[in-house]
């Protein structure tokens, strides 16, 4: 039978009463194939548990002795599996949407994932508009206030005080 980390977390009681738990180390996200395999195993286990719950309920009815605590525990296990299924579905949706990014530019040149500009024609690529830093040329999102590479102020405010230079007025006059 497959291991379900979510079920183990639910069943496990806190080991210590200390105020803070040690920080969890960051791990790389599992591959989509591993996510799909875990999803299939959870679906199979969920089907078996639903079938067993139906059989258990039928036996309790035949014997006229219902144990609510047992039924509630079995239902909680099924709900925990369904919550994990929803988590896996959202992770798989995120992977699928990331892969739907345009693979070619308007000019027809291939665009590597994560690049901000087309290497062939120089057009910005991706969902958000991109500009480059006037100081170092590093690509920036259009709404960036500072360059992440050199720290130079970016955007229309960078040239003058409060944007007064844009309208042609003297910034020192009131």
Concise summary:
The chain is mainly α. It contains 3 helices and 2 strands.
Description:
With 174 residues, this protein is mainly alpha-helical. Among the domains are: 31-99; 133-167, no CATH class. It is built from 3 helices and 2 strands. It has helices spanning 5-11, 32-63, 68-99; strands at residues 130-132, 139-141. Strands 1-2 form a two-stranded antiparallel sheet. Helix 2 (32-63) packs antiparallel against helix 3. It is elongated, with a radius of gyration of 28 Å.
List the helices and strands and how they pair.
Blueprint: H1 5-11, H2 32-63, H3 68-99, E1 130-132, E2 139-141
Antiparallel strand pairs: 1-2
Helix pairs in contact: 2-3
Tell me the overall shape: elongated
Order of helices and strands: HHHEE
Intertermini distance = 77 Å
- How much of the sequence lies in strands comes to under 5%
Radius of gyration, in Å, reads: 28 Å
Total helical elements: 3
Number of strands: 2
Oligomer: single chain
Approximately how much helix is present in the residues? 40-55%
Mean pLDDT: 75
Structural class: mainly alpha
Ranges with pLDDT <50 over ≥5 residues? 157-166
Output the strand order for the largest sheet.
Answer: 1-2
Most strands sheet: 2 strands, antiparallel
Structural key phrases:
174 residues; mainly alpha; two-stranded antiparallel ribbon; 3 helices
């Amino acid at each position: 039978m497959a291991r379900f980390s979510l079920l183990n977390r639910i069943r496990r009681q806190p080991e210590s009463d200390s105020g803070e738990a040690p920080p969890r180390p960051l791990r790389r996200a599992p591959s989509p194939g591993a996510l799909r395999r875990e999803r299939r195993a959870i679906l199979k286990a969920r089907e078996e548990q639903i079938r067993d719950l139906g059989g258990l309920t039928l036996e309790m009815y035949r014997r006229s002795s219902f144990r609510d605590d047992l039924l509630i525990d079995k239902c909680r296990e099924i709900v925990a599996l369904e919550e994990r299924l929803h988590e896996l579905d959202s992770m798989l949706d995120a992977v699928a949407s990331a892969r739907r990014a345009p693979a070619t530019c308007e000019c027809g040149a291939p665009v590597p994932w994560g690049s901000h500009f087309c290497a062939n024609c120089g057009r910005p690529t991706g969902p958000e508009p991109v500009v480059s830093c006037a100081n170092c040329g590093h690509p920036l999102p259009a709404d960036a206030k500072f360059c992440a590479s050199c720290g130079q102020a970016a955007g229309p405010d960078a040239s003058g005080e409060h944007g007064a230079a844009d309208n042609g007025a003297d910034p020192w006059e009131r």
